[in-house]
């Protein structure tokens, strides 16, 4: 759950449920790390190929993505507000690609099968930002990434450790043990 919703649940819903004598085992908030996918995972989509910096950042987590379809000035402003994102833009949009390379992005997905200009590749190499080339159009890639994030699993040590932390922090284990008949 988002932080504004989790506060509502903790202040209003939990109070109501406790008044009804319903035991609460925990409220688990939305966690960006648990919902993240790796750049490598994104690059494995059909027809996806890493054309720059295969060695860099592929195992970094992507918490979201943005579509670069606006003016470069506006795009840069939006990209700079986000962290740990991948930018999806047409392979023929060098202006947006340069804007993304100036922000803290984890990678750039170039759609339409268009290879980027040599200047873009050189700048991506310099900044250690992977470029992923795909044949699909931007809309199809966005749909694919959206459905991919819905089925994200717990893989990798970082995610498993984070899941353990979230559960330990937000679940009332003594109450859970009591309810299932175990002693704590």
Q: Which terms summarize this structure?
A:
two-stranded antiparallel sheet, 2 domains, 184 residues, alpha/beta, single chain, Udp-n-acetylmuramoylalanyl-d-glutamate--2,6- Diaminopimelate Ligase, Chain: A, domain 1
Mean pLDDT: 83
Strand coverage percent: 15-25%
Q: What is the name of the CATH topology of the largest domain?
A: Udp-n-acetylmuramoylalanyl-d-glutamate--2,6- Diaminopimelate Ligase, Chain: A, domain 1
Alpha-carbon distance between the two ends: 28 Å
Question: Number of DSSP strands?
Answer: 7
The profile of the biggest β sheet is: 5 strands, mixed
Number of helices: 8
Helix-strand topology string: HEHEEEHEHEHEHHH
Overall tally of domains: 2
Q: According to CATH, what is the class of the largest domain?
A: Alpha Beta
The percent range for helix content is: 40-55%
């Amino acid at each position: 759950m988002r932080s504004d919703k989790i506060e509502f649940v903790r202040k209003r819903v939990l109070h109501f449920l406790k008044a009804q004598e319903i035991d609460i085992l925990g409220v688990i908030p939305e966690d960006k790390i648990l919902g993240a996918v790796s750049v490598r995972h994104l690059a494995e989509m059909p027809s996806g190929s890493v054309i720059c910096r295969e060695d860099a950042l592929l195992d970094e987590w992507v918490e979201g993505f943005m579509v670069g379809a606006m003016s470069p000035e506006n795009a840069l402003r939006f990209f700079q507000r986000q962290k740990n994102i991948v930018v999806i833009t047409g392979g023929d949009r060098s202006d947006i690609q340069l804007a993304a390379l100036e922000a803290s992005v984890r990678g750039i997905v170039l759609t339409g099968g268009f290879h980027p200009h040599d200047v873009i590749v050189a700048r991506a190499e310099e900044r250690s930002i992977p470029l992923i080339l795909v044949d699909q159009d931007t809309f199809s890639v966005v749909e694919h990434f959206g459905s991919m994030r819905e089925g994200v699993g717990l893989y990798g040590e970082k995610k498993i450790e984070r899941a353990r932390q979230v559960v330990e922090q937000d679940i009332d284990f003594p109450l859970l043990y009591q309810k299932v008949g175990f002693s704590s």
